[in-house]
Design goal:
Structural class: mainly alpha
Shape: flat
Distance between the termini: 53 Å
Largest sheet: none
Number of strands: 0
Radius of gyration: 20 Å
Number of helices: 6
Order of helices and strands: HHHHHH
Number of domains: 1
Length: 143
C-alpha cells in the first residue's frame, strides 16, 4: 500500500493494465507476479491449516482483490471521478484511515479476530449529517 501511495502513477498503470487485459491476457504486470501469488497462496493455506485463518471465502483472491482493488481505486480513480470535491486521498490522515480500513477488511475476510475494537466513525469535515425528516403516517384511504 505504501508503494502505491508513494507512486500514484503505479496505481493508474495497474488500472490501465487491467482495463486493457484483452490485449495482453497472458502477460503479467511485473516479472515475479507468479512467485508473489504463489507465496500469498501458500501463506493463506498455512493460516487455514494452523487455524489462524477462518476465511469467509476458501479462495485468497477474494481478500486480495478487495484490498488491492480498493487501494488502487482509492489512489488512482477517486479524485478524478469527483473533480469538484476537495477530498485528497493522499493526505497522511486519509492514507492512515485507508490503511486501517484495509487491515480491518483483511482481518474480516480472513477470519482473524480484531486486535482492537473499531473506533466510532467520525464525520468528514464540512459534511454535517442531515437530520432525518419525520415520516408522515398514511391514512387508510391513501394506501
Amino acid at each position: 500500500m505504501d508503494t502505491v501511495v508513494a507512486r500514484p502513477t503505479l496505481a493508474r498503470l495497474i488500472l490501465r493494465h487491467a482495463a486493457e487485459a484483452d490485449e495482453h491476457a497472458t502477460q503479467g504486470i511485473f516479472p515475479s507476479v507468479d512467485h508473489f501469488v504463489g507465496m500469498g497462496w501458500s501463506l493463506f493455506e498455512q493460516g487455514r491449516a494452523s487455524g489462524e485463518f477462518n476465511p469467509v471465502h476458501g479462495d485468497p483472491f477474494h481478500a486480495a482483490s478487495a484490498v488491492i482493488g480498493a487501494t488502487v481505486f482509492y489512489v488512482a480513480a477517486l479524485s478524478p471521478l469527483l473533480p469538484k470535491a476537495t477530498f485528497n486521498p493522499l493526505t497522511p490522515e486519509h492514507v492512515a484511515a485507508h490503511k486501517r480500513d484495509a487491515l480491518r477488511t483483511v482481518r474480516l475476510l480472513l477470519g482473524i479476530p480484531s486486535a482492537t475494537p473499531a473506533p466510532a466513525p467520525a464525520s468528514a469535515p464540512g459534511r454535517a449529517r442531515k437530520k432525518a425528516k419525520p415520516r408522515r403516517k398514511l391514512s387508510r384511504n391513501r394506501r
